[in-house]
Amino acid sequence: MGKMLSQYLLSLFIAFSSFAAAQTCTSLTIPVNIEAQTAHITIPEPVDQSALTAFFVNLSTHSIDYPNTIINGTRQLKAQYKIAGKLCTPKNVKPNGTLEFATHGVAFTHAWWEVDGDNSEFNYAAKAVASGHSIFYYDRLGTGFSSLPDGIQEVQSTVQVEIAHALVQYLRQGKTGHKFGKLIGVGHSFGSVITVGVTVKYPKDFDDVVLTGFAIGDPVAPFVGAASFGAAIASEAIPTLNTPSSYVVPGTISSYQANFLQYPNYDPAVIAAQFKIRGTATLGEFTTLTTPVAPATDFTGRVLVVTGITDSFFCGGNCAEKINGTTPPNLVAGLYPATSNFSSYVPLNTGHGINVHFSAPTTYDIIEKWIGA
């Protein structure tokens, strides 16, 4: 088991370490101390795949609020974790420049921000640096090289919000040796949920935010996402992992397609490589998935929402639908009543996983121009 785990981590390390010569990248392991109010979830670790499947059947049943049936109050968590991250800056980085703080979503790791390697058009981090920005991106708690604690009681959305906040403070205090003048929160999917959560609780952490793979208002979409996730016990689907049965991954490349892709607008070879290094998620995260989403009444920065036209997780497959006259991406404006500017972009021929579609280079251009200098 130890040898296989080492092989899996080596594949992540290769992706973690390589980058283009036009930028300077540093891998970091950052200790974070957090206090968070967590949900007391009253389910055991799944005893087998059938028990896990039953959890997702219940979670995807539209007529019941399954999370509410298995949460019995809250607990106060105080813990220290190690978070693996990567800071990439332009070769001649200027002081007080712009830093993008990027948080990935469910079924991914930090590698979501550097898809297909150094010179790939799908590599978001490289595009950010080429645009004159620095970027910090990391393995969320419960993924990759970061700590892998209890997947039910600890790895939850509120904990992820506190970790993101702690990392932002670490960066703002210049502990990496760089001082940044502006911090832009960039999220994808669950990473956008976490970013929203930060703007709610810590409205001064980010100057502006970019929420990709995110929308609100479609009551069916979360159930579509849960039903099509095809969850498998991570350690059984990827034998090199040694995680509890509360850690899950998409079990097949077909479920990966159903959740993240719009056929045929992607490169199958890129998808196969991404599927091979797919990241874990936990039952604690799925149970508390939308907990951080609330009006960020004190956040005054700009907000950009970028969501693929056929996003399944947040639009149920149709982000052009109208809910009370407004599309789900534009409904996000309701979460930000004090924003200085709200805008959205919906790339065509694109599903939930915007970074792996052929539309990605154009999407990246729009995001980086929006962020500005």
UniProtKB/TrEMBL annotation:
Segment forming the signal sequence: 1-22
Species in which this protein is naturally found: Sistotremastrum suecicum HHB10207 ss-3
UniProt keyword annotations, A-Z: Signal
Transmembrane feature ranges: none
Protein name: Serine aminopeptidase S33 domain-containing protein
Entries under InterPro entries matching the protein: AB_hydrolase_fold, Hydrolase_4
The organism's taxonomic lineage, starting at the top: Eukaryota, Fungi, Dikarya, Basidiomycota, Agaricomycotina
Record carries keyword Signal: yes
Residues covered by the Serine aminopeptidase S33 domain: 127-312
